[in-house]
């Protein structure tokens, strides 16, 4: 009986501990990014593990115009330039991504650090990633 009374008395404390661990799990899924916009302003962006970089950028009201919807098939897209120290943390560029870069990005704007935001899925290794949003001109290919 005393044991049951103790369990009932301590139950609220344990339920709070569970919600704290749930908050920790949410925080573990958050990825902090720094994006340099077309004006040179650093914009902090939060994304979640599993989300594409394009989704994270399009979801930020300060960057939504930088990551336009280019088609119903491709969805949101951004040409980005990734800081050198993070290139090795990204998956290798695919042939399809290279083709899309040459299709949507002005040739003069393509660099070895050029990537498409829709092709990068956020993971814990990308926490702290710094990148710059670059020009994207899909209408020039029409």
From TrEMBL:
Signal peptide: none annotated. Its cofactor is [2Fe-2S] cluster. This is Uncharacterized protein. GO terms for biological process: P450-containing electron transport chain. SUPFAM superfamilies: 2Fe-2S ferredoxin-like. It comes from Cymbomonas tetramitiformis. InterPro entries: 2Fe-2S_ferredoxin-like_sf, Adrenodoxin-like, Beta-grasp_dom_sf. It comes from the Eukaryota. The keyword Cytoplasm does not apply. Keywords: 2Fe-2S, Iron, Iron-sulfur, Metal-binding. The lineage of its organism: Eukaryota, Viridiplantae, Chlorophyta, Pyramimonadophyceae, Pyramimonadales. The keyword Iron applies. Gene3D superfamilies: 3.10.20.30. GO terms for molecular function: 2 iron, 2 sulfur cluster binding; electron transfer activity; metal ion binding.
């Amino acid at each position: 009986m005393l044991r049951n009374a103790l369990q009932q008395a301590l139950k609220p404390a344990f339920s709070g501990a569970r919600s704290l661990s749930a908050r920790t799990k949410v925080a573990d899924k958050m990825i902090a990014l720094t994006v340099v916009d077309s004006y040179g302003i650093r914009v902090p962006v939060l994304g979640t593990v599993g989300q594409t970089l394009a989704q994270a950028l399009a979801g930020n009201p300060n960057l939504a115009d930088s990551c336009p919807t280019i088609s119903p098939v491709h969805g949101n897209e951004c040409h980005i330039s990734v800081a050198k120290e993070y290139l090795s943390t990204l998956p290798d560029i695919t042939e399809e991504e290279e083709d899309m870069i040459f299709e949507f990005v002005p040739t003069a704007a393509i660099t070895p650090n050029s990537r498409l935001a829709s092709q990068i899925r956020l993971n814990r290794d990308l926490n702290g990633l710094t990148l710059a949003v670059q020009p994207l001109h899909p209408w020039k290919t029409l």
